[in-house]
């Protein structure tokens, strides 16, 4: 219990930090704090809703959509979750899906002004898209989506077009194509446009074309003098790579100690590459030395800020999660997987997170299982039932069922309480669960009451039917109490 309280406190503190960062406009920091909070409390739908909003502000709309869906899965009745989903879908230009999300949210909260506003914007965008997707002749323009969205983000990341944003003429050209895709056909002879077109569609091209102002005479640029090499450093890196290859060979042969020896030597030769530490951790994971695997991963993570190998963070955290999973330390594994997914959205890591969450739930249920304590709670429930304190009896039977969910008598007794409270649907559900667990349990007493309970579902609000159900159930209740 102390561990649970501590994690809840940590989650609340991280959430408050995230909210503060969001309000001051530091959305990247907000994502970090919300991710920390989720690691401590992964079942809190509010945290996923908040992180979705932060991702949206960072224009990471796929991540925002994922968090919105996770929020909804945790609490399908949370209207704001559908607002988060609608916003992410809108920015992804999936306007019809955004409209559906906003409408679902409004079913839960009809007066929500933000949902109404979002719905109106998505419907308008959908209409504009339907109207603007055709050229003058009425046929669909094949280039209308190529230059849509965040064009420059993708162009700046690709070495073929990284220099385009530095040339005002190219910027003006690309922006004009984004505003009016019909101009694309006019500029198909421009190599810069073709290169950008290929990058945006993930197509191969010739070597990157550097954006320059066209000139009548083209003169070759003088080649820069080659930078002096550092033979000692390069030689050490080559030796390290060779040791890594030897380690990989031993790893495939499952010669774990020999593989560790080669990877360790590679680390000594090239301490600025934490890949070798990651490989050592992988070997320890295969050996079954899970704590050593975690320690090696942590050692590598501590070196990230110095080596600037930030792309390794997600992989290292996922490997730590794998080690904790092998140790059946589910809370720690879930925390590592959540942090890893913050760095990289890897489907395999997401699947392992879901498996760890299910395993933790099952483990918690097993740890809570106690037939002895269940009998004690059942006895308390029977006492309350005799005193006609039916809500208190239901609470005792609830706890007894949690402690021993396979005891059919507990469902029988709680069903009797529900009938006394006129909760016919609950009575029927528990009665059917009782029969499912033990089909032969006092079947002669079950037929008439169950039929009346089913009838009461169809004639809601008629006290005569409910009263008849209780009257017909009296013998059944007494039989169950003796159980």
Write the layout of secondary structure elements.
Blueprint: H1 2-23, H2 27-40, H3 45-57, H4 61-74, H5 79-91, H6 95-108, H7 113-132, H8 151-157, H9 168-179, H10 191-200, H11 231-252, H12 256-269, H13 275-287, H14 290-307, H15 313-326, H16 330-343, H17 347-368, H18 371-386, H19 390-403, H20 408-420, H21 424-437, H22 443-458, H23 463-482
Helix pairs in contact: 1-2, 1-3, 2-3, 2-16, 3-4, 3-5, 4-5, 5-6, 5-7, 6-7, 11-12, 12-13, 13-14, 13-15, 14-15, 15-16, 16-17, 18-19, 19-20, 20-21, 20-23, 21-22, 22-23
Overall spatial form:
flat
**First CA to last CA: what distance?**
33 Å
Tally the helices.
23
What's the Cα radius of gyration?
Answer: 32 Å
Low-pLDDT sequence parts: 133-141, 205-223, 225-233, 443-483
Q: Which strand-content bin applies to the residues?
A: under 5%
Q: Helicity level, as a percent range? A: over 70%
Mean pLDDT: 78
Topology pattern, helix = H, strand = E: HHHHHHHHHHHHHHHHHHHHHHH
Q: How would you characterize the largest beta sheet?
A: none
Structural class: mainly alpha
Number of strands: 0
Describe what you observe in this structure.
- The protein has 483 residues and is mainly α.
- It has helices spanning 2-23, 27-40, 45-57, 61-74, 79-91, 95-108, 113-132, 151-157, 168-179, 191-200, 231-252, 256-269, 275-287, 290-307, 313-326, 330-343, 347-368, 371-386, 390-403, 408-420, 424-437, 443-458, 463-482.
- The longest helix is centred in the first third of the chain and has 22 residues, at 2-23.
- The protein starts with a helix and ends with a helix.
- 35% of the residues are buried.
């Amino acid at each position: 219990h102390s561990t649970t309280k501590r994690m809840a406190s940590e989650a609340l503190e991280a959430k408050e930090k995230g909210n503060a960062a969001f309000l001051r406009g530091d959305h990247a920091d907000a994502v970090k704090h919300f991710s920390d909070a989720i690691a401590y409390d992964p079942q809190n739908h509010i945290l996923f809703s908040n992180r979705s909003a932060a991702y949206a502000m960072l224009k990471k709309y796929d991540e925002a959509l994922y968090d919105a869906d996770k929020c909804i899965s945790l609490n399908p009745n949370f209207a704001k979750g559908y607002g988060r989903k609608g916003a992410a879908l809108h920015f992804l230009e999936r306007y019809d899906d955004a409209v559906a999300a906003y409408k679902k949210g409004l079913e839960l909260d009809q007066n929500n002004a933000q949902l109404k506003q979002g719905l109106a914007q998505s419907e308008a965008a959908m209409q504009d898209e339907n109207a603007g997707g055709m050229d003058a002749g009425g046929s669909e323009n094949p280039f209308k989506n190529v230059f849509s969205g965040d064009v420059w983000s993708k162009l700046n990341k690709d070495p073929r077009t990284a220099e385009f944003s530095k040339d005002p003429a190219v910027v003006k050209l690309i922006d004009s194509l984004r505003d009016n895709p019909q101009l694309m056909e006019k500029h198909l002879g421009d190599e810069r446009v073709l290169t950008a077109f290929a990058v945006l569609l993930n197509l191969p091209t010739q070597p990157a074309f550097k954006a320059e102002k066209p000139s009548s005479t083209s003169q070759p640029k003088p080649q820069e003098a080659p930078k002096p090499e550092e033979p000692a450093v390069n030689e050490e890196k080559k030796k390290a790579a060779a040791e890594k290859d030897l380690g990989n060979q031993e790893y495939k042969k499952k010669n774990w100690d020999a593989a560790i020896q080669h990877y360790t030597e590679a680390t000594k030769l090239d301490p600025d590459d934490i890949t070798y530490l990651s490989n050592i951790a992988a070997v320890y994971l295969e050996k079954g030395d899970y704590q050593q695997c975690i320690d090696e991963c942590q050692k590598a993570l501590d070196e990230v800020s110095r080596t600037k190998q930030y792309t390794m963070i997600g992989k290292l955290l996922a490997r730590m999660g794998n080690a904790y999973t092998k140790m059946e330390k589910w809370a720690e594994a879930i925390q590592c997987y959540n942090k890893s997914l913050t760095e990289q959205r890897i489907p395999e890591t997401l699947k392992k997170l879901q498996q760890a969450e299910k395993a933790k739930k099952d483990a918690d249920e097993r740890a809570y299982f106690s037939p002895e304590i269940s009998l004690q709670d059942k006895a308390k429930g029977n006492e309350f039932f005799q005193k006609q304190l039916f809500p208190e009896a239901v609470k005792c039977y609830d706890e007894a069922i949690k402690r021993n969910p396979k005891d059919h008598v507990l469902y029988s007794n709680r069903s009797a309480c529900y009938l006394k409270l006129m909760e016919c649907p609950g009575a029927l559900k528990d009665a059917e669960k009782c029969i499912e667990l033990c089909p032969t349990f006092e079947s002669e007493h079950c037929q008439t009451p169950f039929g009346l309970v089913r009838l009461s579902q169809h004639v809601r609000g008629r006290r005569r039917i409910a009263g008849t159900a209780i009257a017909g159930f009296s013998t059944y209740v007494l039989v169950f109490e003796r159980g």
